[in-house]
Model the fold of this input.
Amino acid sequence: MNLKIDTNEQQNSVLNNINKLTQRKILRTQCPDAKGLISKITNICYKHQLNIIQNSEFVDHRSGHFFMRTELEGIFNDEIFLADLGSSLPEKSIYELKSGIKQKIVILVTKEAHCLGDLLMKQAYGDLDVEICAVIGNHALLQPLVERFNIPFYLISHEGLTREAHDLAMRTKISEFSPDYVVLAKYMRVLTPEFVAFFDKKIINIHHSFLPAFIGAKPYHQAYERGVKIIGATAHFVNNNLDEGPIIMQDVIHVDHTYTAETMMKAGRDVEKNVLSRALEKVIAERVFVQDNHTIIL
Amino acid sequence: MNLKIDTNEQQNSVLNNINKLTQRKILRTQCPDAKGLISKITNICYKHQLNIIQNSEFVDHRSGHFFMRTELEGIFNDEIFLADLGSSLPEKSIYELKSGIKQKIVILVTKEAHCLGDLLMKQAYGDLDVEICAVIGNHALLQPLVERFNIPFYLISHEGLTREAHDLAMRTKISEFSPDYVVLAKYMRVLTPEFVAFFDKKIINIHHSFLPAFIGAKPYHQAYERGVKIIGATAHFVNNNLDEGPIIMQDVIHVDHTYTAETMMKAGRDVEKNVLSRALEKVIAERVFVQDNHTIIL
Amino acid sequence: MNLKIDTNEQQNSVLNNINKLTQRKILRTQCPDAKGLISKITNICYKHQLNIIQNSEFVDHRSGHFFMRTELEGIFNDEIFLADLGSSLPEKSIYELKSGIKQKIVILVTKEAHCLGDLLMKQAYGDLDVEICAVIGNHALLQPLVERFNIPFYLISHEGLTREAHDLAMRTKISEFSPDYVVLAKYMRVLTPEFVAFFDKKIINIHHSFLPAFIGAKPYHQAYERGVKIIGATAHFVNNNLDEGPIIMQDVIHVDHTYTAETMMKAGRDVEKNVLSRALEKVIAERVFVQDNHTIIL
Amino acid sequence: MNLKIDTNEQQNSVLNNINKLTQRKILRTQCPDAKGLISKITNICYKHQLNIIQNSEFVDHRSGHFFMRTELEGIFNDEIFLADLGSSLPEKSIYELKSGIKQKIVILVTKEAHCLGDLLMKQAYGDLDVEICAVIGNHALLQPLVERFNIPFYLISHEGLTREAHDLAMRTKISEFSPDYVVLAKYMRVLTPEFVAFFDKKIINIHHSFLPAFIGAKPYHQAYERGVKIIGATAHFVNNNLDEGPIIMQDVIHVDHTYTAETMMKAGRDVEKNVLSRALEKVIAERVFVQDNHTIIL
Done:
């Protein structure tokens, strides 16, 4: 009987250890399309005794690429698993195993509070599962807001600096935190190609129009001048063509003749912050793939 | 007692005659803004014993203009009423008394059936209070559909004609019906300035994008290439700048990476027809005013 | 050289035969969740040399069920393929191989034209890939509309019949066409349990409210009385609890205090027809699965 | 020349005094409908040399009532102006002249931060023109958030108190601030009739469903159980029937089978906060009229 208890305890202990070792990870696969890819990948998962919690895949006929996002649960041996995958997938495949470790972001701002405030609130109250390492502004206006949420704020003024010098200072400060993503929460400056290249596919911007309409400065004033009946916002990855990077999310609201450029701006702020935070949520959940100038969201 | 009956009958007869004379009309006023305009106009209505059923007004601070739409009920003496109004309103005022007589439209089409079909259905079943005088196509494809609804179809092919000659033929045919509005229900040709000038502010077009994005040809293909996450449609008055006339109505739907240009086109058709018929409904209800390149919808 | 030509011809002939034999089919799998299901199913596809064109799957943790929709291309041997599947899947699995043969529907109507008209238009112009076998009305009002589209209309009046007798007559007529689905396009009668059981999970209804609000009669009047700021429509499978079957699709539009029950009805008609046709499109594309009182749309 | 300068100075001084005396006020009129009301009211404005900046009116045929909101600019003698109005309007008219003085609100909360945080952010950064006198919670959880925005937080726990005793304590504390409105920002307790009567038509609640669907507790769980494809939120005035007061604003978002009750809750939070803040904005702009169980928003 003692023995039996011992055995049970032993078993429990083994189970506990298994539970401790059990992890959830996300496999992201992006590769040239080929026959049998789902079968090959899921077989390898099965062989490694990794249970598929959720799986989504897509074949982009435009680019001839295959995309798959697989939530796995089990005991991982990353090295062997990825080696097995590598030998099964076509050349030029990209495959990553992402642990569920909280992703890190740095937020850049200028003077507008609404997008920043929404991210701070959501992060503080559990609706955005991310670590905000720092907020960096080229103005000091939002420093008190950030500090209320116990997050470090850095002022890097652009005054008296060339764009290159300012961007370099920004880039240096951002790099200290090795963030997974840089979020432009109404950061109202155009970035240098060096900056964009340095954080390639890692910079997410919110533009206050439904792109490709009203690219560039003062989109609400452009919208008012044109007399449109909808206004909107676009979250996108930044590339070197202004407001032309891969779009992640867009939304609009209806306006009418009673709106001025100012009341459009005010109404638009809710759209901007909603679109940015939803886009960021998809990105940090490892759901967003970039192919050429498009996004696939699984 | 006989007398009493007689009197009653006389009174009834008078009341009946009054009821017969009683009409509903819509007063549209568009003029430079000035103090006391609502007071002046409603006083004149009151003086003429016209009851205000519904009233809407707007001051456009951009242009400094005043707009008012007044649904009136009573016995109208149009000439005296309008003369009274004219002496009270500022110079350069536009004021019209619109009887509720059913407005007449001519519809132009090419090959696509959905917007046309929606207008035909709505007109046939009481959801669009308009007389469709004729449908004119530069292709014959939609003739059977139109004729099923007992509406005359005219084929005016553009084959072998210059744009000017074709437009002139179209204009001549349209003019036979003296329509209040010309509705371009996916009429896929650019109009000559002469055509546009001839039906100034009377041509309503549906463009298959959320303008000002994707002006011109193949907007869904442009949308697909750009990788947008919304597609839409815009109903607007036609002026001489392609897809740049005053916007009446716009709407969008969400799309994702699974859409091709073709499935965007298909999904977009419902948006197009909804936007066009809602815009037309506002126009024929005398609710739409044009000021510069904008619309005010009261 | 002749020989070579012959060989080529032979090869071409073989290729042509292969192309002729190559088909697209959709595999629908619905079963208790288990480990390795995706892997097992895709392996069998791979083994049968069936190429996966598109695949979607979902695990419903509420019911513990697994759902998968797989578009396959290749040369099918249905019997062996399904037997292979059957031996790999858990007990109580449902799996069907659907050929792309055009599905057949019968539409039931009463007096309202808009949903019917939208389906007729879409079917006639290629936006709804379905065969409309017949339209059956309990009133004659819509007969001319249906016949304009060269589709047979049957009048089965409910006058003087018990509900049971009328439903039986309807059911008998519908059964003549062996439809895949019965579409209630504003058919304003409550069905008997016998009728519902006979066409189990095959009856699609459009209800003119955002369910579960405003169940039953006159939902727009209920909406007007309640003073709501949105109105909507719900497409759902019919079960024996009025307006409580599994929901397929819902949408709403905004209304304000200027709306009456009548103008709500008018505005609502566009929502109703859009929601019904989009729901039907998903159903006939074999994308809709029913589990308990819910739908999974892949 | 000296004289001229003096005269100019005098004139400037007079103009300055006039400018100082010039105010903007909002006239709200709600009365039984009658002929000539717009004319009568605008005449009185004209006679008092008050310029109409913006005017909206509505006749509710359901109740036979007339509603008008008039933004006026000029030098006000409130007493005489209102007396003049009173003698012109029908019996049982309600008419108020609202100065643009910032309205005062008290916010009640329980544990959820999102609606509160949005109001705090908007008030702090100029998007909500209101004075937040205090936030009162029946839990202490949100105290730090409130205090970060330098607004007093009061904890009035319901523990160990009857509902009546707790409501009385809340009411007493609220009354200290004489607020124009009491905003329930996810205050998760049912109010006593005494409380509701005390702040009649002054309590604004946000309910996390599209009413009248999912009244009462756990609406997202109800929504999940029902398998709806939309979720939403409703801002309404509170009366003594749970979730049945006059609706101010509603909105929805689309959901699908991948949502759980928890992810519905998370996605719904953005809708809730948007709907509440937009409703509050309309209310404090004096745009919302209540008639029976409906709102008219001018």
The first strand of chain C starts at residue 23 and ends at 32. Chain C has two domains: 2-99, 103-297. Residues 103-297 of chain C form a domain with the Rossmann fold fold (CATH 3.40.50.170). Chain C touches chain B through 17 residues (CB under 8 Å).
